[in-house]
Amino acid sequence: MLARLGNIYRLGIKELRSLRSDPVMVFLLVWAFTFMVYQVAENAKMEVDNASIAILDEDHSELSRRISAAFLPPYFKPAVEISGEQIDRVLDTGEFIFVVDFPPKFEADILSGTLPEVQVNVDATAMAIAGNGATYIQSIMTQEVLKFLDERNATVTLPLDLVIRAKFNPNLNSTWFMAVMQIINNVTLLAMILTGAALIREREHGTIEHLLVTPVTSVEIMISKVWANGLIIVIAATISLFFVVQGMLQVPIMGSKTLFLAGAVVYLFSVTSFGILLATVAGSMPQFGLLVILTYIIMNLLSGGTTPLESMPEWLQFIMQVSPSTHYVGFSQSVLFRGAGLGIVWPQLLAMIAIGGAFFTVALWRFRKALAESGK
Amino acid sequence: MSSGPLNAVEIKAVTHRYGEVAALDDVTLDLPAGCMVGLIGPDGVGKSTLLALIAGVRKIQRGEVYALGGDMGRSEHRRRSVGRIAYMPQGLGKNLYQTLSVYENLNFFARLFNQKKSERVRRISRLLAATGLAPFGKRPAGKLSGGMKQKLGLCCALIHDPDLLILDEPTTGVDPLSRRQFWELIDQIRESRPEMSVIVATAYMEEAERFDFIAAMDDGKIIATGTPASIKSQTGGRTLEAAFIRLLPAEKQARHRKIEVPPRIEEDGTIAIEATGLTKRFGDFIAVDNVSFAIERGEIFGFLGSNGCGKTTTMKMLTGLIPASEGEAKLFGKALNAGDMQTRRRVGYMSQSFSLYGELTVFQNIELHAHLFHLPKDRIDTRIRELLDRFELGHVRDSKPDGLPLGVKQRLQLAVAVLHEPEMLILDEPTSGVDPIARDEFWQLLIELSRNDGVTIFISTHFMNEAERCDRISLMHAGKVLAVGAPEELIRSRNARTLDEAFISYLEEAIGPEEEAKAADVPLELEDMVLKNHHGIFSLRRMLAYARRETKELLRDPIRLAFVLLGPIILMITFGYGISFDVEDLSYATFDQDQSFESRQFLENFSGSRYFDEQKPITTAAETERRLRSGELKFVVEIPSGFGKDLKIGRRPEVGVWLDGAMPFRAETTRGYIQGVTQQYMQDMARQNDGTAARLSPVDIETRFLYNQAFKSTYAITPGIIMLLCVLIPAMMTAVGIVREKELGSIINFYATPVTRAEFLLGKQLPYIVVAYISFLTLSLVVIWVFGVPLKGSVLAIAAGALIYVVSTTGLGLLVSAFVKSQIAAIFAAAIVTMVLTMNFSGFLTPVSTLSGGAKFMGRFFPAPYFQQISVGSFTKSLGFADLWPNHLALIGFAVAFFAISAFLLRKQER
After folding, report:
1. Model pLDDT for residues A30-85, shown as the tens digit of each residue
2. What is the DSSP string of B444-482?
3. Does A152 contact B at CB distance below 8 Å?
4. Contact B652 A132 (CB under 8 A)
5. Is the CB of A296 inside 8 Å of chain B's CB atoms?
6. Which among B862, B42, B712, B724 has a CA at the least distance from the CA of B438?
7. Alpha carbons A325 and B353: distance in angstroms, whole number
8. Is B727 near chain A, with CB under 8 Å?
9. Cα A142 from chain centroid (whole Å)
């Protein structure tokens, strides 16, 4: 037993040395966990940002001008005035996403309380901002009108006050969310590539055969790959979490970082095993590349990290339970954003262990089978 | 040498470097025309580089090369003479297409030389008959034996009646019978075309005896030229190998010691290895067929045979690496069990190619294995020192093996193999490609191990002189053992002069008439073509030759084919469901502290909404926190006590809502919905109270969602996914298609034949355009049928747009291929470039109109945003050609530009 642990330790050290002398992988690792996390968190905003808006002003009143001027950055680009016949064209070509149409006598109707109708035309193919942008436009207009009336002492009273507060992320800052999700995506992708490529490289160079004529078993080889590559990624993710996410991006993390990293260890067990499994299915490095891209996109997009799981059809939600990424995304959101403890997230941990165990077993079986046919 | 120019090739002061290493060092050499010229020397001395320069497939760095009366440094001369030169690169069947049949391979080459169908058929059938390959016309090249592969390679080279035939190690790794047949074939061809010059490189010195003229090379320099006889008499060597060693610089010769094999002292006769009826099947293929032998302790037992005859598989079975299908192997009297660690400790193994870690140093490699064999801690250091000493590795202790000469690497492998002092060594072709001196050094070590340490050595080789040093050898062919015995015994039993002849005699007996059909007595008179119409700017036939071949290869590669056809559909489903801005079924709970008629009426608005999904109500404040934290609830509506009363008397009660902000986009949208529901409630209330809603809201804002009234993500996202997948996969697969040729070496056919850059690229691109268009059509059907998105606009606009788009995206793949060297790099480069650009700058998620500065600029120089307009325009916005045509024009521009830049960047010669 001690001898086995010794082998696993030695082989893992070898794995670390190999990685160190692979500049492309090291670069990929560093770049992904620093620059890419920062870049994505800062830029890939899923909020209304820089939206293009056009105004068809048939009123030319003070109020219509005041409202037009109230669409401000960073949410909106400065509003552009267009003429009536342009509306269809600018929406068709996607030049503007929103076109606001102030009817004639708009201001006069407001003052007389006749409730004028303002039309907001939305290009609903720009899904990312069409919905929330329309909500913003409504509330900006309402506020401006109320302010305008208030200045003229024509107050409007509402029967109740609606106070909406967001827990865990009061300003609904998407940077918080994207930064953490990007770390998870990187963990998934790199764990798969690192372990899978390490195995294929050993196979293509014939070194795996050489190992197998020494007193080393295939389980030991697999475990050494899992621990060594897993360790590297846990370290990279930790550094990224503390220095990039907390330090540079100033994201306050309320949950337990220790619990998050413990979850990462469990998750890595399952993804590295999956990487080995893919490598045993692929015949060569190019085939492995195709498989990784395909599976990564699925594991990433359908995990609930991009689109909430409950928005997907039920059969798909059910299938995605097989992917460890689904559980890890749920786990991470609970722990890091909502500050959930072990009492809440244990089912996800358990699921990841079970899935990882299954992947590991199948990978080992395939690995042994592939070795038996390697003389071909 | 009577007619034509005196020299076929003249080389003047040629130097060629790969990075720091000089492969050719100021070489000046004249090779006579009309005869058979041999370049001899071990691996890595520059033979292949020199041949590639002569053939014009490699770019000359310094110096001048004249071939066929012209300067090979000038592209004009190369273009004119490429149809007169034939080049067969090193490596068994390296320029052949493994999945294509013999006939298809030949047909492809004939098309590259622009031959008409009738001419092709005539030539191919004649070549096949002359080489005896006719019965195997339909067999895939990958399934041919080494000898047959080389014959096919020769046929491909001869398809256009070359005046200069260049063969780079054509017989390495081929069995002696096939080797002899190969040379007979060459002689036959030369008889019928005496004006043809042949230049051959070889590492087998014996073979060079038959050449008319020899140039011996070492370390990038020519060390001697002349006829074999003159070289031998100059140096006084009995054989060419001996002569070669004497030609080497003094310091190299000094290292050489003549190999003496002391006779083996018969021991107790214990059997070290015994194989009985060992058989290995891979599917239908029998790699090893009923092999039996016994090796005594301390014996050097040789395994002689061609590549692919089953030597390696047999050795792997004996090390326990792969299980035997049938039969039994015993090591030291114990049945071999793959899992048995004890036998592994008694055996040392060295595989065919270098299989230690290139990224670890010499010392680290030995140390790793010392640990894996669990040498006692105090032994490790001394043992490593001993090995470094004995195998002369001390000076490279901290170097990485990758940069070391092959001979040193093999010593390192041997050091690792004997590290744990095994009683038996299994060595698989340990000396392939190693220079003669290093080979003899290696053998010296083996002999010491055998005679001094009593180690049993089981070694495979295809060098006859090495086989002669073994105590006993076994001749192997096509998975069967033909004979076992001491070398002299085998020679005697066949009445042969040499071991080579004896082996051939055994082979002839074993093969008989059925397997390799004897070459028919067809004269190889290859008539001169009246018109050598190889030139011309563009030939449809040559272009289609590539297109046809690419299609066949793709159809026969299940993984690539599946990826190309099923990949898009799987990804469409993934993206279609994975990227959604629809927020529905939001689970929420109420914390009603008032429990009045008014509060219930207010909350009814929430339970009635299709967006919300009510859960068990909350009763305590702590519960709010807990249930939000667990992720069970997305929001909580809290009604204070006294709500109903306050509402009635107009005291503006406050309704509190707690959102789960973990996922900002969802929270943002939820907030909008909650505001909407409350607004609705207030207006309803106002209408009930006094009939006017005016007092509650001063303005009526009518929001019209155009193109997508239902405001469903699917309608907007799925057309965008078509855009994304029709760039991601075509670009990736086209790039791989080209880089594959670079990686596998078949790109050499592009360098060595009259194919132009445009023909090559277009031929490679065409199949992927077709496949990409098929996948566009299937994706559209998935969008319409599975996701239920109607195609509202012009079918013609999107159909035409998609065609131009896939031409441009496959063109992008061509462009990517110009910058990468390996398939894996091509896959990731194409994937990253297309994903980053489509996701960020193409209007897929972020509308193009919201981009500014650099991002806006990036998007302009990429075809995807233009097709995004066409796709979304046709599917969702009901637009037609009249609205979309500028996008079509832009795409045509991209298609042309990508192709032109790729053609410009593609090199017609290797660097």
Report:
1. 988 998 888 888 776 667 888 999 999 999 999 999 999 999 888 899 999 999 89
2. HHHHHHHHHH--EEEEEES-HHHHTTSSEEEEEETTEEE
3. no
4. no
5. no
6. B42
7. 39
8. no
9. 34
ipTM over 0.90: no
Chain B 331-350, CB below 8 Å of chain A: which residues? 339, 341, 344-345, 347-349
All domains in chain B, ordered by first residue: 7-254 (3.40.50.300), 271-511 (3.40.50.300), 540-576+712-905 (no CATH), 586-690 (3.40.1710.10)
How far B577 CA lies from chain A's nearest CA (Å)?
A: 6
Q: Copy the structure tokens of residue B549.
A: 């071949």
3-state secondary structure B288-340: EEEEEEEEECCCEEEEECCCCCCHHHHHHHHHCCCCCCEEEEEECCEECCCCC
Spatial contact of A148 and A110, defined as CB atoms under 8 Å apart: yes
Give the per-residue pLDDT at A156: 66
Q: Tell me the C-alpha distance between B354 and B371, whole Å.
A: 20
Q: Which residue of A has its CA nearest to B718?
A: A125
Those residues with Cβ within 8 angstroms of residue B56's Cβ, 6 or more apart along the chain or in another chain: B67, B72, B78, B81, B82, B85, B751, B752, B909
CA distances from B84 to A330, B69, B157, B159, B161 (A): 68, 12, 10, 11, 7
Chain A residue numbers with beta carbons less than 8 Å from the beta carbon of B823 are 285-286, 289
* B850 CB within 8 Å of a chain A CB: yes
Longest CA pairwise span in chain B (Å): 125
Q: What is the DSSP letter of A34?
A: I
Chain CA centroid to CA B358, Å: 19
Count chain A–chain B contacts defined by CB atoms under 8 A. 383
Q: Does B656 touch chain A (CB under 8 A)?
A: yes
DSSP state of B35: S
Q: Within the 354-373 window of chain B, which residues sit less than 8 Å (CB to CB) from chain A?
A: 354-360, 364, 368-369, 371-373
CB contact under 8 A, A330 and B631: yes
Instruction: Check if the beta carbon of residue B373 is closer than 8 Å to that of residue B420.
Output: yes
Residues of A within 8 A of B881 (CB-CB) are none
What is the residue extent of each domain of chain A?
Answer: 2-44+172-372, 53-151
Query: What is the spatial distance between Cα B850 and Cα B612, in angstroms, rounded to a whole number?
Result: 31
Which of A 310-329 lie inside 8 A of B, CB atoms? 310-313, 316
Asked if A8 reaches chain B (Cβ–Cβ under 8 Å), the answer is: no
The answer to whether B511 faces chain A, any CB pair under 8 Å, is: no
Tokens read off for A84: 């009536």
Tokens 């059910």 — which residue?
A318
The 10 Å Cβ neighbour count of residue A79 is 21
CB atoms within 10 A of CB B722: 27
pTM: 0.87
CATH class of residue range A53-151:
alpha beta
Chain B stretch 619-648, residues whose beta carbon is closer than 8 A to a beta carbon of chain A: 628-631, 647
Please give the pLDDT value at position A223. 94
- Specify whether the CB–CB gap between B802 and B867 falls below 8 A: yes
Amino acid symbol at B329: A
For β-strands B334-335 and B347-350, DSSP reports them as: unpaired
pLDDT tens, residue by residue, B250-262: 888 877 777 778 8
Residue B85 pLDDT grade (very low, low, confident, very high; cuts 50, 70, 90): very high
Average pLDDT, chain A: 89
Residue partners of A291: CB distance under 8 A and separation at least 6? A278, A281, A282
All residues of chain B having their beta carbon less than 8 Å from the beta carbon of residue A97 are 847, 849-850
SS3 B17: strand
Confidence check: pLDDT of B531 > 50? no
Cα dihedral B495→B500→B506→B507 (10° resolution): -150
